[in-house]
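Here is one such protein, fold included:

. . .
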Amino acid sequence: MRTSNQAKKLALFASGAGSNVRRIHEHFLDRTDVVVSLLVCNKPEAPVVAFAREQDIPVRMITREDLSDPGPIVRELQDLNIDLIVLAGFLWKIPALVIQAFPDRILNLHPALLPLYGGKGMYGIRVHEAVLQASEKESGITIHLVNEDYDKGRILFQAKCPVLAGDTARDLADRIHQLEHQHLPLIIDRYLSNIS
């Protein structure tokens, strides 16, 4: 059982450059009530791994095999007393066992306005290409809880931005990244405040 003065612990799952991991780390850096306790990554060469090591954040590399038999990773997360898992650019589906072990304790960031442009295979630049192909006038971000269906968990927050004439997928991605960096740490903070 947590005592009131114990820090809440975050595990961040990421697969790439880690710009959102950097923003989350920065947001909580001088706090004593929240700590980034672990980075979980599936790509040893990902820049986010080097960043985590520079910041003395423990790193746990995982493979497809780890997710096909997720018992050990669940036990590691439980042994660390992780309060909240945040998928900050993590591209693999989270196994049911992990979801069941952390009910309503896994947040995902999706680079579109769900329920549009979600589901299997819809990540990164693919999402922005689909938005442009559909001639949408706006896009945005969705922060939602993770359940056993891709991008179907309860939505906690959405923020919108315009899709401008002449936008490329990269232009739209840059605008979406700004929303992610602005809002994700704040939504994590707010959600953690409701976890006892």
In short: The chain is about 35% helix and 20% strand. The radius of gyration is 16 Å. The longest helix spans residues 169-193.
